Amino acid sequence: QVQLVESGGGLVQVGGSLRLSCVASGRTLSNYNMGWFRQAPGKEREFVAAITWSGGRTFYADSVKGRFAISRDNAKNTVDLQMNSLGPEDTAVYYCATDRVRMRDEKVIITTVLGYDHWGQGTQVTVSS
Q1: Most buried residue among 8, 21, 81, 91 by CB atoms closer than 10 A?
Q2: 60 and 38 in contact (C-beta within 8 Å)?
Q3: In what order do the strands lie in the sheet with 68-73?
Q4: pLDDT digits over 38-95, tens only?
């Protein structure tokens, strides 16, 4: 059974930073592209960032490009999201997820919710002004 657990969320002031971490059990993450998504109250879950299974490629939503960085440690079965220059618009529950396809072609990065089949429970990030 695959289980993903996010941590690192919290309350931070505008301009601050947080580092989210996702650890997996029941699946070897090194075979799967990984994504981070977020969902604000009353809004749909949206793509934030993704990294290919080898770590060779990353992709970001325009809204976080230049501020967020996704990374992975396949030896530890973890994926992190470093978030800098946070603003109130970044307030949301953040989720990590695994791609449905094992060792997907690294030229292809999926940014839709339906492209991912296992999700963590989420971690709350609140940015106060």
Answers
A1: 81
A2: no
A3: 3-7, 18-25, 78-83, 68-73
A4: 999 999 999 999 999 999 999 999 999 999 999 999 999 999 999 999 999 999 999 9
DSSP state of 11: E
- Please tell me what DSSP assigns to residue 85: S
Q: Which of 3, 104, 12 minimizes the C-alpha distance to 50?
A: 104
Is the pLDDT score of 124 beyond 90?
yes
Beta-carbon contacts of 65 under 8 Å, excluding residues fewer than 6 positions away, are none
Q: How far apart are CA 127 and CA 89, in angstroms?
A: 8
- Check: CB of residue 48 under 8 Å from CB of residue 89: no
Place of tokens 């990294």: 51
Provide the b/e sequence for 26-61 (b: ≥16 CB within 10 Å): ebebbebbbbbbbeeeeeebebbbbbbbebeeebbb
CA distances for 102 relative to 43, 71, 74, 108, angstroms: 29, 18, 14, 12
Rounded distance between C-alpha atoms, residue 74 and residue 17, angstroms: 24
Confidence at residue 29, expressed as pLDDT on a 0 to 100 scale: 82
38 DSSP assignment: E
